[in-house]
Specification:
The complex is a heterodimer of chains A (about 280) and B (about 260). By secondary structure, chain A is of the alpha/beta class. Helix content of chain A is about 45%, strand content about 20%. Chain B is mostly helical. Chain B has eleven helices and five strands; from the N terminus they run H-H-H-H-H-H-H-E-E-H-E-E-H-H-H-E. In chain B, the strands form two sheets. In chain B, strands 2-3-4 form a three-stranded antiparallel β-sheet, with helices on both faces. Chain B has a two-stranded antiparallel ribbon with strand order 1-5. The chains are: A alpha/beta (about 280), B mainly alpha (about 260).
Chain lengths: ~280, ~260
């Protein structure tokens, strides 16, 4: 059972994890980085896996695409899962391409009944193939579709119920999308079904004033820390991690930042249980 | 069925590929719809350029930032990705660069692209046990002619018109100034990985010919026949000396005695 606080495994930190074995509850790997025939990445993966529990996080399932499900990809994903024995497997609530062109980006979906129907069937098939429920993550979005029939949080809540999938709540992405589209991030968090949120992502972004870009190349900003505290207060102790993808700092910096996350969560949870006892 | 979703995804993709604004994008918000959509337009290109830079670090160094980006942008426009994993993006860059000589400052860089792609392929090629020399020692002399030696799946044989290895070596030493332009000279370079490290070395024509025989699953008698062209009187000795080198380099796969018979 994966609990507590983790980090995304990045190549810059392979040696740190092997030689120093810093205390950390778990690591998240990017599945595609290890969906390769062999060599150094898999060698380091196996060595680090021996010391840390792991979860798998993918970027290529393209669960929302109108292209057929890619079973070659799913077979490779399953083979990697057999090797890693992850706590869970996640990907993104998005599409990455259509007509067999891959744009390699996490692209927004229209929030419509039609999309709900399309996604539900695909998630059920993927979960059946993998033999496990998957987690889907809310992505940062910069544009919305004219055809939207519901909010993103209504869409996610309904989809997770219909497809019986779990959720990876990226608090930074909620903040980024809320700023870009002018909705209340708290309303989004309030709508999340507590029993389905298994993991939380935290990351940094770039604030350009009139729009906010999800870059994962900076420390977590205060506004996102506050939203995280709000989420933990409502959802309870959800496994949380920092997702840093660019301008990767020394591991100790990320561990120090993760300590702040841990302390913040512990304070909220202590307050929460105190309030429960008093009530 | 899925009419709206299909229109959205096709419009969105066209918008990214052609730098347009999909009609279905809702306007409003602090920033204009075009400005917000441009985040996707730019991220698409940035991510693919980063992928090419990761696959071709020495080419990037040889061309410099601006020329590398021009080549990358042109390649991305001509070859939208169809690979699931971005790791494999750029597999046709050598052909593309060969056809667009205006985008590469020297024709030898096409060979550099091929060398780097082979190195990248060796890096994460399948893991297999190496053939142990002791396993060969147990092969009866009469069985040798039918013996088939298997190249390790990480091994790549690259035909090059230029001696671009110098560019690769120059890139490993920081601050040595501009590397000299490679000299012309057709040859084969062998690329492989041993353990976690990748290697390459340029080959004499004789060794290249024999390795082509291995790649074609020829038996040892056929490999020795190839050697006749290079050492008429001592073909077997030449083949055996190469075999020793291949074992030392870790080019052969296999874990037990090799007794498979060539079916012809």
């Amino acid at each position: 059972m994966i609990q507590g606080f983790g980090l995304g495994l990045r190549t810059d930190h392979y040696t740190d994890f092997i030689e120093r074995k810093p205390r950390l509850d778990w690591l998240e790997i990017i599945s595609e980085n290890y969906m390769i025939p062999g060599g150094k990445p898999l060698h380091y993966l196996d060595r680090i896996r021996a010391d840390y529990p792991m979860v798998m996080h993918g970027v290529s399932m393209s669960i929302g695409s109108l292209d057929p499900l890619n079973f070659d990809y799913l077979r490779q994903l399953k083979a990697l899962a057999d090797r890693v024995e992850p706590g869970w497997i996640s990907d993104h609530l998005c599409w990455t391409g259509i007509d067999h062109t891959n744009l390699h980006d996490l692209l927004p979906l229209p929030y419509t009944e039609e999309a709900l129907h399309h996604l539900t069937g695909r998630i059920l098939r993927v979960q059946e193939f993998l033999g496990r429920r998957i987690l889907l993550e809310n992505v940062s979005t910069y544009v919305a579709c004219n055809d939207d029939e519901m909010s993103e949080w209504q869409f996610i809540r309904e989809l997770s119920a219909r497809a019986d999938c779990e959720l990876l709540l990226d608090v930074n992405n909620v903040y980024v999308s809320a700023r870009n589209h002018g909705f209340d991030a708290h309303e989004f968090i309030d709508a999340m079904p507590a029993g389905r949120v298994r993991q939380i992502h935290l990351a940094g972004h770039q604030d350009h004033g009139d729009c906010v870009i999800d870059t994962h190349d900076h420390p977590i900003r205060d506004e996102v820390f506050e939203l995280y505290a709000y989420a933990i207060e409502r959802l309870g102790p959800v496994a949380s991690m920092i997702e840093r993808d660019d301008r990767i700092p020394p591991l100790d910096e990320l561990l120090a930042e993760l300590d702040l996350v841990r302390k913040g969560a512990e304070q909220v949870l202590a307050r929460r249980s105190h309030a429960a006892v008093s009530a | 069925m899925n009419a709206s979703l299909a229109r959205w995804q096709r419009q969105f993709m066209q918008g990214i590929l052609t730098r347009g604004l999909p009609g279905m994008v809702r306007s409003g918000g602090a920033a204009s719809a075009q400005r917000r959509f441009d985040i996707y337009v730019n991220a698409y290109r940035t991510r693919l350029i980063d992928a090419l830079r990761a696959n071709y670090p020495v080419l990037h160094r040889a061309l410099g930032d601006d020329a590398f980006e021009s080549l990358a942008q042109a390649y991305i426009a001509a070859h939208p990705s169809s690979c699931t994993n971005i790791r494999w993006f750029g597999d046709q860059l050598d052909t593309f660069a060969g056809k667009h000589s205006d985008l590469v400052s020297h024709p030898a860089l096409v060979d550099l692209i091929r060398l780097e792609w082979a190195l990248r392929g060796a890096f994460d090629a399948p893991d297999r046990a190496l053939l142990d020399a002791a396993a060969l020692a147990g092969v009866a002399p009469t069985a040798w002619p039918d013996l088939i030696l298997e190249l390790h799946p990480c091994v790549r044989l690259v035909a090059l018109d230029w001696q671009v290895e110098t560019l690769w070596h120059a890139a490993q030493t920081e601050g040595q100034g501009e590397p000299e332009a490679p000299l012309p000279g057709f040859h084969h370079t062998l690329v492989w990985r041993r353990g976690l490290n990748s290697y390459f070395r340029s080959l004499e024509a004789s060794e290249a010919a024999l390795i082509k025989g291995l790649a074609a699953a020829e038996n040892f008698a056929q490999i020795c026949e190839r050697a006749v062209s290079y050492a008429a009187d001592s073909a077997t000795e030449l083949a055996v000396s190469f075999l020793q080198r291949w074992l030392e380099d870790g080019l052969l796969a296999g874990s037990g005695p090799v007794t498979r018979i060539n079916e012809q």
